[in-house]
Amino acid sequence: MSKFYITTPIYYVNSTPHIGHSYTNIAADALARLHRQSGDDVYFLTGTDEHGQKIAKAASEAGLSEKDFTDKMVAIFLKLWDVLCISYDDFIRTTEERHTSTVKNVLSILYDRKDLYLGKYEGWYCAPCETFWTDGQAQGESCPDCKRPLERIKEDNYFLRLSKYQPWLIDHIKSHPGFIRPLSRYNEVLSFITNNKLNDLCISRPRSRISWGIDIPFSPGHVTYVWFDALINYISAIGFTHDETKFRKYWPADLHLIGKDILRQHAIYWPIILKALDLEPPKMIFAHGWWMVGADKMSKSLGNVTDPLKLAQEHGIDAYRYFLLRDVPFGLDGNFSDEAIIKRKNDDLANDLGNLVHRTATMIEKYFSGKLPDCKALEPGKLKSDSDQLFGEVKAAMDAVDFTLSLDKVWSVVNQANKFIEDTKPWVLLRENKTQELASFSLLLVRAIKAISEALCSFMPLTSKSIREQYSAPLIKKGFPLFPRIENVH
Ligand code: MSP
Q1: Overall pTM surpassing 0.85 (yes/no)
Q2: In this structure, are residues 94 and 229 in contact, taking their beta carbons and an 8 Å threshold?
C-alpha cells in the first residue's frame, strides 16, 4: 500500500462555484477513488481561499462581516461537493487557526533564514485577480489576464528571494520531466524560467490598504499576500509545524491538480517556497485547460457561467461527471454546451452502457427467471472481459492522469459486449433450445458488466453501485433504464 496525497486549488469564495471549479474537484475525486480502490492510503484535500481584498469587497457589498460572508459561501461549496459525490478527506479554510498559525510559522522560519527582506514595491496590481504585474507584463494599464484596469502601487513590503533559488528550480525541472504536466505546460515553464530572470516575490501588503489577511508576525504593519497564504494550505492541512508525524506521512504531495491560469504560482513560487523551507517539491503538478463558452473562458466576471448544481440536477450527477471527464482530453480547453452533454448522455450512456446493462438483465430474467445458471462451459475469447485486465488498463491510464483514455478503455469493453450480443443472437439460441450456450453467453456478459461497473466506480460512483447491486442480487431483475434518452435534441 502506498500513500497518495492529492490536492485541488482552494477556491475564492467571493462568488459561487461554477463548472470550472467543479471540473478540478471531479477529476481529483476520480483519482482519489481509484487510488482507494487500489488499496492506497489516500489524502484528498480541497478547500477555500478566504483572505484578500476581493473577498473583503464581496463581503462588504453583501452587507456582511468577512466571517459571516465566508461562512455563508463555504456552505454553498460544501453543498455542491456533497451533491457531486466529492469524497475529500479534508477541507481546509484559510481562515482556520490550523492554517493561519502555520502561515505565521512559515513566515518566521523564512525571515530567520533571511529569505525574506523588506524592500520597496512598485508596480501594477489587479484587485479582482489579486495579482501583481510588472511594467513588462501589464498590457498598458490593463490586466493581461482579465483585461480590467490596474492600480499603480508604491509601498514598503516584504520580498521572498525567488532569484536565489532560480538555478535550483531550473535543475529540478530539467531532471524531473514528469514534474509539470501536460508536456506543453512543462515546456512553457521551462522556457520561461530559463529565458527570464525571476524577480523576487512580494509577499506582504500594508495593513493600511488590506486588513483582511494573516498578520506578518514580525511586522505589525503588514498582512500576508493572499497567494502566499493560499499556497501554504497544501502543507498546513497535513500538519506542517503542528503534527510532524502526519506531515511526514503525506508530504510531498503526489499530485497538485490546478487550472492552467495558476501554473506560475504553483510551478515557480510554490517549489521555491518549499525549497526555502527545506521541504521536497510536489511530485507532479498537472494543469488542466479551461471550459470555454464560444471564444471566452467561462468565468463569473464574464457573466457566462452555468451552475453545476443545476446541470447535475438536470442531467444526473454521474452523467455530469462523465461528460466533464470524457468529452475533452485533460489538459486541453473544451467547449461547453447543453447539446454536447445531451449527445454524450444519449450516445454513450443511454445507447451503449444503459442498453447493455438493461438488455442483459432482461435476458437473464426471461431465459433463467433471473437466476444465473451454474455453468462451467464458458467460451472466453469471444468476449474479452477479464475484470483484472480492464481495471489494470484503467489504472495505468489514470496514473498518466488521462481520463479520456481510461474511459475509452471501459467503453471498448461496453462496445464489445454489445457486439457480442448482436453476434451471438441469443434469441436464436433460445429458439433452438441451446440452453448450455445461452447460459455461458449470459455468464460472460455478467462478468463483463461487473468488470465495467468496477472500472467505472471512480468516475460514476452512483451508477457503478447500482449496477453492482443489480447484478450481485440473488435474482437479477431488469429494473429501470439507467439513463433514459433525452429526445428533443436538435
Ligand atoms: N484561490 C486561487 C487558487 C489558490 S490555490 C493555492 C484561485 N481560485 S479560483 O477560484 O479563482 O480558481 C480556482 C480554479 O478554478 C483554478 O484552477 C482555475 O483554473 C479554475 N477555473 C476557473 N475557471 C475555469 C474554467 N472556465 N474552466 C476550468 N477551470 C477554470 O485561483
Answers
A1: yes
A2: yes
